[in-house]
Amino acid sequence: MMSSWWAGLPAAQATISCGGQEHRLRWQAGELLALDHGDADAERTLAALGGQRCGCVDMLDAWHRHVGDLRVLVLASRGLTDQLSPQPGPARPGGAGFARLAGGLTPVRARRGWASYSASAASVAHLTAGRGPALPAPATADPEDELIDLLQLGGCLPDRLAATIAAGWSPRLSQPDEAARRALPRLHAALYGRATAALRAWLGKPALAVDLQMIDGRRQPGLSQREEGIRAELPFGWLVDVWAKGLAVTAGRFCLATTHSGGRWVLSTVRPDLLEPRPLTVELPADQ
Questions:
Q1: Is 286 a domain residue?
Q2: CA spacing 20 to 30 A to 167: which of 39, 130, 190, 227?
Q3: Residues 228, 232: Cα–Cα separation, whole Å
Q4: Coil, strand or helix: which one is 30?
Q5: DSSP annotation of 76
Q6: Are 129 and 69 in contact (CB under 8 A)?
């Protein structure tokens, strides 16, 4: 029986302000939950009838509206060395914008969408959203403000959103439809950014040149030395199977792929000398 994509991925939790109180949002087993609200649908009905809006339920709805939004994969953190930092200023009326640390992307709000970016991969520039089914948004909701709010959640929730989006797109690449083919530059950019950040941190080379080929999931992944840097051959599913679970670098080795049974995971890993991959067995927490 095929396991769920979130197997081995522990629960994550953050608090937000809701009605003047601190409430909990918790991600577990692939779903975001508002722990301090028993009936989210009732809260939505009251808001539709003119009652006070509920911050937690608004965040749940924003999450579902962006669950297929490829901009999240491009803009969200790519690892521990690449964190988002809220910053006040005119970038976002009534709230904070955000900037990426460690030389990554710096979104700049303009009247119509994201105005400019700087990044190491040219394909990052293609940022048209690819979204799945979404819940209706309030008439006053700004999708870009929602995206900023989601990316500023604490407790690793933005990483879980990125993993959810990657897991939704990954199976579509085995037999890509027109939408998946159009999304390929952005999917490649998402994989490139995270794999490159992991490789540079692993080898301690911040300027390491990485030539990434996004391969079919049925092919064997690998790393090889090139005169100008490293060539990496990885499937897009690496984001779900390896990166999202925090396994990109494990015990000083770079992880290429994973297989598992129960809580025991076998990683295909390589040492910094890039010799033949060797298995490494680890135990990850069961679904929570």
A1: no
A2: 39
A3: 13
A4: coil
A5: S
A6: yes
